[in-house]
Amino acid sequence: QVQLVExxxxxxxxxxxxxxxCAASGFIFSIYTMRWYRQAPGKQREWVASITxxxxxxxxxxxxxxxxxxxxxxxxxxxxxxxxxxxxDTAVYYCNRDVIWGQGTQVAVSS
Length: 111
Fold this sequence. Notes:
By secondary structure, the protein is mostly beta strands. The protein is 0% helix and 51% strand. The chain has strands spanning 3-7, 10-12, 18-25, 34-39, 46-51, 57-59, 67-72, 77-82, 91-97, 100-101, 105-109. Strands 2, 4, 5, 6, 9, 10 and 11 form a seven-stranded mixed β-sheet that branches. The radius of gyration is 13 Å and the shape is globular.
């Protein structure tokens, strides 16, 4: 069964950091591009970052320099390191592979 399970969300103050994890199972993780998306309240889901099978990365302009996507193929896990968090980063963050989605993890940035 193909599955993506996110973790690591929480409440953090502006300027703080979080690291999200997405544990994958049921498929050959290393050959797929993995993505992070987010959906803020009342807004459409938006793409945040991607990492290819050979670890090339791409980012939404508004998170460049603050977010880092990485992967550990030995652990079948993709990460999203987020620093210098802003209130506008508040959203549910989702891990994605093609049409497969995780359940999401909530990130709230507030003082």
